[in-house]
Structures are given as C-alpha cells and as structure tokens.
Amino acid sequence: MSEADMILSVENLSVAVGKGNGRLAVEEVSFDIGRGEVFGMVGESGCGKSLCALSIAGLLRAPMHVAGGEVRFEGRDILRLPARDMRRLRGGRIAMIFQEPMTALNPLMTVGDQIGEMFVLHQGLGRAEARHRAIVALAQVQVPSPERRISDYPHQLSGGMRQRVMIAIALACRPALLIADEPTTALDVTIQAEITELILDLCRAQGTAVLMISHDLGHIAEICNRVAVMYAGRVAEMQSGQAVFQGPRHPYTRALVASLPQPGRRLAEGRQDLAEIKGIVPPLGQRPPGCQFAPRCARAADDCRAAVPPFSTIPGGGKVGCFHHD
Amino acid sequence: MPSVLGRRLLQSLVTLLVSVLLVFVMFSVIPGSFANAIGGEKRQISAEVKEKLRAELHLDEPVHKRFAHYVSGLVRGDLGNSFAMRRPVAGILAERLLASLRLAVAAISFSALIGVPLGFLAAARKGTWIDATVMMLAISGLSVPAFWFGLLAMYFFALELRWLPTIGYGHGDLKHLILPAVTLGIAPLALIARTTRAAVLQVMSEDFIRTARSKGASEPRVAMRHMARNAFVLILTTIGLQFGSMLGGSVIVENLFSWPGIGALLTQSVAQRDIPLVQGCVLLIIVFFLVINTLVDLTYIAIDPRIRYS
Amino acid sequence: MRRFNLNFGLCVVVALVLVAVLAPLIAPYSPIDFADLNNSNLPPGGPFRMGTDEQGRDIYSRILYGARISLLVGVVVQVMNTFVGVTLGLTAGYFGGWWDEFVQGLTNLMLAIPTIVFALALMTFLGPGLLSLLIALGLTDWAYSCRISRAQMLSQKAQNYVQAARIMGFGRAHVIFREILPNVAGPLVVVATMGVGSAILSEASLSFIGLGVVPPTPSWGGMLARAREQLMVAPWIAVFPGLTLFVTVLGFNMLGDGLRDMLDPQGRADR
Fold this sequence. Notes:
The structure holds three protein chains of three kinds. By secondary structure, chain A is α/β, with parallel strands linked by helices.
C-alpha cells in the first residue's frame, strides 16, 4: 500500500496498566489501514482490542496509558500530538462508536442537540443550522420521521435507534476513519445485521475507513477486507478476511475457526461435540515469557516457550506470529 | 406531564394532612396533665381558671370533635392563643417568621455558594491532597457543634476584633446576619460539598461522558454542557432538603445569637410549656419543610425529561 | 484514608469510654463540690489545667465527668433508636400492606422534622431533666435504621434461605430476627455509630439551651451555656468543653465512615 493510500499506521503500540510500563495489556501491536478499507480486529474479551481502539482515538484514561510505539494518522504522529490538535481530529477526522447504546447518550439532551453538537464543534455552525443538518443526518441513518425525532430524548428511543443516533453523530463530519467497537453486540440479534449493513453502506458512500472490532470471527471475516486476530495483547495473525477464515495459519485462529458451530453440519455429519480450545487466556500479569498461546497449543515446542515468535510473511499478503505456522 | 405534576401535588397534600393529624395527636390527645401543664410546675391556678381553660380548649369534648375544631381553626388561620403571651398564636408566628426566613436564606446561600464549588474542586482533583483536605474539612464541618463554632466566632469577630455585633437582630441587616448565617450554614456546607463531589464523580464515570469526549469536546465543555446539568439534579435535592430543615434546625443558633425567629420562640415556649405556641411552631416548621420539598420535586420534574415523558 | 478514619475513630471512642469509666480516678478535683468562688474564672495554668468556671470549679475535672453523661446519653439513646427503627423497619418490610405504608409515611415525616424540634416538642410534656432527655431523643432518630432495615428486609425476603426456613417450619418471628437480622447488621452498625455521635451532639445542644441536663451536673453543652455568659471575662471556658465535644463527635463520624468503607469493598465512584 502506498503512503498516500494509508490513513492509519500503528507501529509497535503498547498499552500499560497502572504505574510504569510493567503490566502490558497490549504488546507491540502493528497494523495499518488504507483509505476506505474495512479492517477487522478480532479476539476474545480481554485481548486488548478495545484498548488499541481507545489509544488511537486518544481516549485512554488512567490507569491505562500508552507505553510505547507510534500511531500515524494521515501522516502525523497522533500519540504525541498536543491535546488541542487531537481534539480537532477526534470527531472530525477520527470517530468512534461504542458497544452499549443504552448509556452512550446524554439523558438530558435531545437527540438533535447531541448530533448538532458535532456541527457546532467542528464546523462552527450556529444552533439553527446545526439542527437542520442533524435532521438530515438522522434521515441518513434511516430513522423514520427525523424532523420529529430530533426533539426526542434518548430514553424515548430503543437500543437500535440509539445506536443509529450514535452512528449519525460519528459520521456527521465525514471522518476519514470510523472505529466501531463491537457496535452490535448489545443489540437484538434481529437488528444486528441491519446496523452492520448501515455502517458499511454509509462508510462506503463517504469513503470512510472502518476499524471494526468484534469477537465474532465468522462475521468479521465476511465483511472485512483484512482482519487482525489478537490474542493476549498481541497480534497472532493478519490476513485478508477470506483467507483468515478459509486458510488460517496460526494455531489459535485454526482452533477458533474449528470451534465455530456450523449450521447444517449436524444434519450432514451427525452429532458431534463442539471443538473447544482447552485452557484459558492468561490474565494480565501472568503472561508467559514466550508465545502467549504456547500453554494451550498442540504444536508448542521449546522455541515457542523461549521467545516471542517474530512475524513471518504469508505468501499472498499478511503475516503470522508463530514458529510453527501452516 | 400534568399527571406527574398532579400526582406529586396530591402526595404533598396527603402528607400535609397526616402531619396536621400527627401534631394534633401529639399535643391535644396527651391525656391527663394537660390542664396541669398550663399552670407549670410551680404555679397553682384556681379551679375556675382551670374551668375556663377547659371550656376554651374544648377539653371535655370527644376527640373527633376536638379535631374538627382544630382543623376548622387552622383553615381560618386560628391556631389558638398562647398561654404565656395571651395572644393569638398565628400573630406571634407571623412576627417571627421573617427573621427566621432571612437567616435561612442567608445560611443556605452561604452553604451552596461555597459548598458546590468545593465539591467540584475535590472531584476534579480526586486523590490529591486537595481532595483529602476538602473531605477532612467536610467531615469536620459535620461534626463541629454549631453553638461552639458560633461562640468562638462571636468571641473573635465581635469581642476581640469588634468587626461585628455579638447578638441581636438589628433590623435584619447584613452585619447582624453574618455570624448567625455562617454558624447555621457550616454543617449544610459540609454536606453539600460531599454530595457535590460524589455526584460529579458518579456522572463523570458514565458512558455518555466518554461519548462526549469522543466527539472532540474540550474538558471544560464536557464539564459544563454534559456533566454539570446531570450532576445538578442530584445536588439540588441536597440543597433543597437542607434549606427545608433550616426553620427548625436554627433552634440552637437562634438561641445563641438571640435571633428573634421561630427557633428561639420554640425553645421559649417549650420552657414555659406553652402548648398552643409549641404546637403552632412545630406545625409551621413541618409545613415549611413540606413546601420546600414539594418545590424541589417540582423543579426535578421540570428539569429531568425522563420524568416528564415517562 | 479509610485506615486513618477507622483508627482515629476507634481511638476517640476508646478514649471516651476510658475517661467516662475512670473519671473519679483521674479527675484532680470534684466536679461539683470543689467550688470556691475565690477561684472563679481563673485562666488555664497552675493547679487548674484548663482554668475554672464562674463558680470556681475546675473545668478539666468537669470535662472528664461530662464524658459520663455524653457516653451514657449517646449509647442509651442510640440503642433505643435502633430498637425502634429496626422493629418498625423489619416488620414493615416483612408484612407489607397498610402497615408498611403507615411506617413509610411516618418515617418520611420523621425525616422532615429536625430531630431537635421533635425532641423539644416531646420535652414540653416530659419536662426538663436527664430522663426526659433520654426518652425524647430515643424516640426521634430512628428513621435511618428503619429505612435500612426495611430495605434489607425487602431484598432478603425473596431470597431462598428465607423461604427454606419457612418451609422448615420456623415461625415468622424466628425468621425475622434470627435469619434476616444478621444480614442487616453491617449497615446498621454504621448508622448506629454515627447515631451515637449525633445523640451526643443533640444532648449537648439541648443542655446548651437549658432544656437538657440540669446543673450542677457537668455536661459539655451546659458548660458551653455558662461559657457564653462569661465570654467577655473568661473566654477559655468556651474552648475546652467545645473542643472535647468536637473531637468526640468527629471520632464517631470518622469511625462510622471508616466502617462504611470497610463494608463496601467495591470502591464506588465517590471513594
């Protein structure tokens, strides 16, 4: 990918918890996202994917802090940017939507004011004009009767509606990058697909790149151009969406794919136990010195336990961090 | 919204009626020594005066009739006559009410204007020595006996420095108001500071604050537009309740500074066992609290859309 | 911060109890009898460590003896209040219905009236003196313990162990007092601790305005009332009794705060 097409470049990002840089929740994560690309980040709870997202958006709060690495957005190192400049980027060029729509909106402000705030903050519009644009934004996220909904308060809306409002807020100023941290996990299954489609459609239309974070590998693999699989704070494997699913290289990814229940398989092959990955994710502070996955890996050998495996390039694009990958 | 409003007002009305009943039960149904109490312990009153009092207070009539007399009197504004002062209770109360109100307003203004910013400060600097100091001051403020603080303040500012008068009302001007108001306001100030700090910290940990930051809003904007309004809803209740309790809570302070208000009147009438006057004071104190409480709730309804549109 | 609260509070409470119990042994002079008008209003120093009051009595001794009154009132009043509050709260929560409504209304009303006002009203009939004081204060500050008991009762009532006990045939009273009450104990202790401090302050306030403990019995509040009269000539009389009162109440409040922190392990937002 050429420099001009790359809007986000993360290099060896590390995030620590507590004083000093002793306990690393995220360790030397590197990836990049191209203009308009849909990039997925998958992993179990606690693998550090949300922390990566918050670091990029500059929303880390104590006791979490960046312990090392570089994040370049449109060429600039944003980790070292002065707060005022970062604020201008946030919302305007880098937007974020979160997992829990029920609590993400200010209960005492109308939906219109909250969307309109984006225009006031980043485009210097007055209240009337901002309100007008908010109605347009609501219509874009397919909220019916937007001119009436504008005056509603969040508690009058369902979870799905509130998430649409969040999307409207995030995309109001046509950012270059949208970070979506598990945007549908807390929603009804019936509308999850709708919301995901909405996000992808709008971003495609606006040319906005998406960093889609999820714990659902199958789903992510389907919708993303490229996917990074995370385990215990590190990147295990990174490939195109299709390849990750159909040709996983890292033992962890393999195990993940194998453990997904497949509709129809039982009918075809008879009843089987779901494959599971034995063991548990090492908690923070108890991470083994070498490869994080070694304790649970069928192929683990001495070299795995001795040192963290470096990345090898996969023919066809992508990388994998394993001594014994496929 | 009208239904929420209506329901709240109805609730207040019911509480008011129950209060009236309670006051009546407390003061008119206590058996036996009623007539004896009139005379006090030392004085002996003649049988015919006793008789007259019995008739005037309807003591020989059944309870429900007495209650009816009482309520009809209330509605007409007649709270009976004071034994000691031989004047209508209502009149005496009216004379003293303004002084107490002045004191209460001054005290709560002092408490809120200093307590709220202190609470904000402590929350903003949570974990630092500033926070610890403010909290230490708060718990001290809640523990310090108001009359001791008042005495010391009186000594310093009035007797030593001679900046302020020691006691008295003096037409209710500022000079006379300062010491009593500050003394009365210390404990509420501490409570308001603590509540503000807790409210701010709670609101700041909510998700929508993170959303506001993700929009690129500056910290001052997040604090003012997003946090403040949400926190005020919690702070307002405390301020309101403290103010509502001040009419009765000023008993000690009014005594200390010879402030001619309802609190001092209450003390006086208890010492003299002037039952109608005590009754009147207690009723007034309760009513004042109920009125303020209702106003606070109504404000809530006006500010919080979740209640309005539920 | 929490450890400091606890430690400071405990020290104060222990000190108070010790002083109250050992007063006759440590006080250099009798608080009532050793009164020589020649010694009146002496400043601190010499044989009278904290000075003397207008009757020539040693303030230090009177403060030590005053601790007895404060402790007595504090504990007795709080025990009464807790008893009333817990009984009302538990039964209201358990039985529900009109009794619950009534208790709730009553509780709201009690919270509306400042403690001192209600106590004063009761004392109109009871007259001045220590006994009336105890009764009046003991019947007016039960609202919080009632609320807590009721809330606990409501949340525990539906729990399985309660139903199990009933199924096993235990009577209602047993269930209420033997099964549920222990669970209420924690928050109750916090409320009770701070209640003692509050009761001590109330007694002092009432004595200050002349409706509490009758002189010459030494009471910190009463001493401050005398101090007021002597403020111009002997201001030190105001300092020591008040300081003792302040530290005592502060100690109980901090102990209560410390206990509350201890019982609430998950740091809530305000800690």
